[in-house]
Prior knowledge:
Layout: H1 2-13, H2 20-36, H3 38-49, H4 53-79, E1 82-84, E2 94-101, E3 104-108, H5 116-127, E4 131-135, H6 141-154, E5 160-162, H7 167-174, E6 180-184, H8 187-199, E7 204-207, E8 213-216, H9 222-234, E9 246-250, H10 254-268, H11 283-292, E10 298-300, E11 304-305, E12 310-311, E13 314-316, E14 334-340, H12 343-351, E15 358-362, H13 366-375, E16 380-383, E17 397-398, E18 404-405, E19 407-408, H14 410-416, E20 418-425, H15 441-451
Parallel strand pairs: 3-4, 3-6, 4-5, 6-7, 8-9, 8-15, 9-14, 13-14, 15-16
Antiparallel strand pairs: 1-2, 2-20, 7-18, 10-13, 11-12, 17-19
Helix pairs in contact: 2-4, 3-6, 4-5, 5-14, 9-10
Amino acid sequence: MKKIVDSQKAFFRSNQTRDVHFRINQLKKLKNILKENEQDLYKSIYSDFKKSSYETYVSELAHVYHEINMACKKVKKWSRIKKAKTNIMNLPAKSYVVPQPLGVVLVISSWNFPYMLSLVPVVSALAAGNTAVLKPSELPESSSHILAQLINKNFNPEYLKVVEGGIPETTELINQKFDKIFFTGSIAVGKIVYEAAAKNMVPVTLELGGKNPAIFTENCNLKTGVKRLIWAKFLNAGQTCVAPDYVLVHKSVKKEFLKLAISEIEKSRFSYENSNYVQIINDQHIKRLIRLMDQMQIHYGGGYDLESRHIDPTILTEVTFEDHIMQEEIFGPILPVIEYENIDAAIAQIKSKPSPLACYLFTNDSTIKNKFRHEISFGGGAINEAVMQFINSNLPFGGIGPSGMGSYHGEYGFKNFTHYKSILDRPTWFESNIKYFPHTKAKLILIKKLVE
């Protein structure tokens, strides 16, 4: 691992990656490789958890292509030296900020969207002028292999390298002296990465998770809201970091909410055959999800098959915040529904919990919208929509507190992997004696007038 990092540091010092045209050419090359090998990418991810080519393109590759296109179009602008104002004490002088790549970065990705969560941060890192080591999750084995095969075969390993493996390889990687580590995954592993990086003073971006609430008020557009919620919840069989984890529904609309939710699930006909459902990633995860389901709370669904790693879309009712399922992120196709009467009490309950990665509100009440925007702490979210904020590259994506630190997507991704170097450029034809010794009362009076 040290050899890989050292070779990338040497390549970075050659200054090749500082050339914006070099970055654009490498990003275009990455896109072409992905396009030319889409069928192999589809086959690999299907073998991991039966994700269809349609779902793979829409929820994985489309966002990668979009990020590459945006970076190629705008990286020249993002990389420009930016003028800054000069304060009166430094006049006459010019001040400016120089975007500078950090160096050699490590991207550790999650298993649930193995292409998108691996490649989007890599695109940001390369656009910013860094070299990169990618460590994809080992759980979707075929997806990890195809990424390693395509990238390692076509790119100089001193510039871009995929390292496969499990805990031993990841442990060795995070103990190297990178210039930045970008991690997507669980809170538990995020803490390990953060601790290891701190020993080497390596800055870290953590994209973690949390229990994402969705609130339905009594005056929302229930039919449209439920349609959007059900799609967002059961996308990728609920294995989505920004999926609604549970729903708070006003007492007056709970009955109709449940009726519409069941109807929407049945209309959607979630299945592998219909190309809109996937397997649970492995045996450990499906067993964990089964343990979370209280049979007395199952309102709809609840069926599962261990051999095919399948769980039916499931709705739980009569759930309280004290129940076992409310103590951890679900990350699966199980939707707890909690009834509430008072919106302030519901918001207070959310605020009493760790800040989630995402939060969603379905309402037509402008007062409640304002409460949602200003009172609840969360990474990002949506009003009368769910999950779709993730694909808007003009919005920063990231968590807060236990749901993560740092953000990316679009220009925010470029900034994540960039150091903004400040420079003051003063001419030599003028010199004031105000800062020099002796320190007189008259000088102090003048400084106070200039500053205050």
